[in-house]
């Protein structure tokens, strides 16, 4: 696991860093 946001993104597909946009890609930040 690299980051909490990364794990959440890969699991739920919900990007918190992007402001709550549904995406399957990893957060840019």
Automatic annotation (TrEMBL):
Spans annotated as Disordered: 1-29
Superkingdom assignment: Bacteria
Species of origin: Candidatus Electrothrix aestuarii
Lineage: Bacteria, Pseudomonadati, Thermodesulfobacteriota, Desulfobulbia, Desulfobulbales
Protein name per Swiss-Prot or TrEMBL: YD repeat-containing protein
